[in-house]
Amino acid sequence: MTLKFCANISWMFREAGALPLRYGAASRAGFRGVEAAFPYDHPLEEVVKAKEEAGVEQVLLNMFPGNLAEGELGLAALPGRQQAFRDGVELSIKYAKALNCKRMHLMAGRVPVDWSREAALPSMEETFVENLKFAADRLEWEGILALIEPINSKMTDPKYFLNTPQQAMGILQKVGHKNVKIQMDFFHQQIMDGNLTNSIKEYLPHIGHMQISQVPGRGEPDSEGEVNFAYVFSVLESVGYDGWIGLEYNPVGDTVTGLEWWRKYMSKSK
Predict the structure, then answer these.
(1) Mean per-residue pLDDT for 243-249?
(2) Which of 106, 164, 239, 241 has the CA that lies 20 to 30 A from 46?
(3) Phi, then psi, of 124 in degrees rounded to 5
């Protein structure tokens, strides 16, 4: 089987300019699917037009993240922000439906600045579960899969609430809804837990989307780092993973030049 890769145009093709211009750049590079973090700073009509002209599938969106300027990075686990979360779900659905996007990452958010993780855990977990139950139902009605992603606390964001796959699995069990799955980013997985081969097999039934980048530099899969992605791809093929894999990485140089690994993979898989 051949794995399916989609370009994360919030990270890639920055040479093209603003986010709407990157749809066309991704299409010209050969991608048939893209994902994006936060398109909400751009008029919806502009984003939809760019996507349709490029002829690509919108594979994934992140939900509206709250106030980035004030340090918010997601609302789903923030006590007292439940109404803001629900409002954000509605705005994000508006974008997702217009873009025909079937997957949405619901970001948990950060532990409040004046709280310790230990003190915040009970109320944040309760809020997260409550909000996910609401969103799972609401998104299922629209035909959109809800996703949660552990983000590592060792290198990327020490204040992010959801930081391990084990914590994510515990949350899924408490939510108890088939329309919530894990978004496994191998960058975060490797840093927090390693054990990639067994993790793929263990979590596969609960995975709704994957993302990749090299560790620790977060560049292309074939850039210098500790993960043998040729082997990881072979494992994903062997277990029959047929979902999309998002390329959420910072190109070491020019985006298109750095896609040589992808061209080789696709050529070999034909």
Answers:
(1) 98
(2) 106
(3) -70, -40
CA distance 92 to 155: 28
Q: Examine the residue annotation and report whether 248 is marked as an active-site residue of this protein.
A: yes
Residue 52 CA from chain centroid, whole number: 22
pLDDT > 70 fraction of the chain, expressed in percent and rounded: 100
73-76-78 Cα angle (round to 5):
80
Return the pLDDT at 268.
84
CA distances from 145 to 161, 179, 253, 254, 265 (A): 21, 6, 33, 33, 28
Q: What is the pTM of this model?
A: 0.97
- Rounded alpha-carbon distances, angstroms, from residue 96 to 46, 60, 124: 14, 8, 26
Residue 122 in tokens: 């009970």
How far apart are the C-alpha atoms of 231 and 106, rounded to whole Å? 30
Catalytic residue among 45, 149, 202, 260: 149
Active site residue 52: no
Length of the chain: 270
- Residues β-bridged to residue 244: 4
Structure tokens at 139: 């998104």
Quote the CA–CA distance of 138 and 214 in Å, as a whole number: 35
Question: 31 with 6: CB under 8 angstroms?
Answer: yes
Q: 36 in helix, strand or coil?
A: strand
Give long-range contacts, CB 8 A cutoff, 24+ apart: 15-19: 15/254, 15/255, 18/42, 19/47
The closest of 182, 261, 180 to 219, measured between CA atoms, is 261
* Token duo for residue 30: 């050969």
Render pLDDT for 147-167 as a digit per residue (tens, 0 to 9): 999 999 999 999 999 999 999
Cβ burial, residue 1 (10 Å; 0-12/13-18/19+)? exposed
